[in-house]
Amino acid sequence: MTLKSKIKPIIEDNTEKSGKWFDLVIQFFIVLSLLAFSIETLPDISVRLNNFLDNFELFTIVIFTIEYILRLWVSEKKLKFIFSFYALIDLFAILPFYLSFGIDLRSIRVFRLIRLFRVFKMLRFNRAIQNFGCALKSIKEELILYFILSSFLIFLSSIGIYYFENPAQPEIFKSIFHSMWWAIATLTTVGYGDIYPITAGGKIFTSLILLIGLGVVAVPTGLIASALSKTKDNKDN
């Protein structure tokens, strides 16, 4: 038996005891790295703690890099693996570090944000999340149609509230595009209260949009719940 054939079950088969331990170790370091990332944002941390976090970041990068290389090595179709969803997440989780040579990436917020891809690494190890992904795939067309119709409804709502409120509040409802924030907050029933109608027509129109918004929020919930139920039944059978 070759070394590759010995390692492959550990990396890819989480039903084996060794595979379960491998997954647990990776998940453990994901959680710790995210905790370290959060601690870095604390104001006035000591130099000693800062150095420890830097060293721990280096250690976790080594762990995640080894994981990525091992998964690539045992993969039968390497090109397909490289461009797969989970492989891209694994790559983005370590990429900021390798881009940091000669650059202080801590001062560049977008690169620090990329490190949060480590959160998505947990998707690989959670069966419930995997079931959720399968459910979303099964209703992909319905969700696309829902988002298209929702976008269309947001646009129409922006037009409506603009014509009602622009004469009374020209500084707030400056244009249809400025009115889209109100439309999104109203249709999702969030209602932050930072932008609201003051005219009678605008208030009546808002009441109608709020009622429609209750249905808009309920649609994806029903679709996803039904798809999850079907996915679970299919796997049980």
Care to describe what's here?
- With 237 residues, the chain is mainly α.
- Helices cover 76% and strands 0% of the residues.
- It is built from eleven helices and no strands.
- Helix 9 runs antiparallel to helix 11.
- It is extended and about 75 Å long.
- The mean pLDDT is 82.
Summary?
This protein has about 240 residues and is mainly α. Helix content is about 75%, strand content about 0%. It is extended, with a radius of gyration of 24 Å.
Keywords:
extended; mainly alpha
Q: So what's the overall shape?
A: extended
The value of Rg in angstroms is: 24 Å
* Proportion of residues in extended strands: under 5%
Count of DSSP helices? 11
| N/C terminus separation | 35 Å
SSE pattern = HHHHHHHHHHH
Query: Major β-sheet, in short?
Result: none
* Assembly annotation: single chain
| Residue runs with pLDDT of under 50 for 5 or more positions | none
Mean pLDDT: 82
Structural class by sheet pairing and helices:
mainly alpha
Fold blueprint:
Layout (H helix, E strand, L loop, with lengths): L2 H10 L4 H24 L6 H28 L3 H5 L2 H14 L10 H6 L2 H5 L5 H12 L1 H26 L10 H12 L12 H37 L1
Helix pairs in contact: 1-2, 1-3, 2-3, 3-5, 8-11, 9-10, 9-11
